Amino acid sequence: MKKFSKLLKNLIVALFWLGVWYGIALWLNKPLLLPTPTAVILRLTELIISLSFWKITLLSLGRILLGLVCAIIIGVILAVLTSLSPLLKSLFTPLISVIKSTPVASFIILLILWVGRDWLPCVIVVLMALPVIWSNVSAGIAGVDAQLLEMAQLFRFSHWRRLRRIYIPSVAPHFLSALRSCLGLSWKAGVAAEVLTVPAVSIGRMLYESKLYWETLDLFAWTLVIIICSIIIEKVLMSALGSLGKGAQAK
Fold it and tell me: Are the C-beta atoms of residues 118 and 67 closer than 8 Å to each other?
């Protein structure tokens, strides 16, 4: 019943904003500036039934997810190493701060000289997601209860048991929070990189060409694709990780 109420509430909110969009579009009466939701959905339907749509979407999705996976692996390893070594933490903290503060556009302009345009969005996603993963996982490791560690030492827990019973449950909320933030950030950074570098097959190229040729319907339709993909991936991934976490705790 609770899930149904939440679903109904989300549906009402979505319908409200669609209604606002529809009303403004009718009031302006300028489809070139703001098409109606109906027109955008019809255009999206036309795109979905074409083979090129799936090729474009899956390639962009693959680049972004690959970058996110790399950021997670590097961020977690770096967080563990810097938590174990104060020297490494002193060395890497300024670098992470620089990466976090540098605009996406600056990275794109700098890296396009060294990285091929097809791989640049992946690298940009790594650079944008890495500081978030590193800082959250580091905070989770630092926040492990000292009394639990003392108990583990008293009962002579193995390293694996300490990791499974103490560190992973303590770090998991921080990691999931970082991942939730990175999913949206990765899509924005990855697509922005595609728009600026224009890879041969990418959502960013479709957005760029839509702007170039004033194809407003395509611009809105591809933007809707990005939003839908981002929401679906976040729901699926967070649900899967939540299930894994419950299974690990049960063991």
Answer: no
**Structural domain includes residue 227:** yes
Percent of the chain whose pLDDT exceeds 70: 90
Note down the domain range covering 116: 55-250
Inside any domain, residue 2: no
CATH number at residue 166: 1.10.3720.10
What pLDDT is stored for residue 248 in this prediction? Answer: 46
Each residue's pLDDT tens digit, 87-106? 888 888 888 888 888 888 88
Asked if residue 236 is part of any domain, the answer here is yes
pLDDT, residue 54, reads 93
**Is 40 within the bounds of a domain?**
no
3-state secondary structure 49-108: CCHHHHHHHHHHHHHHHHHHHHHHHHHHHHHHHHHHCHHHHHHHHHHHHHHHHCCHHHHH
The string of pLDDT tens digits covering residues 23-49 is: 998 898 888 888 988 999 999 999 999
The tokens for 109 are 């302009």
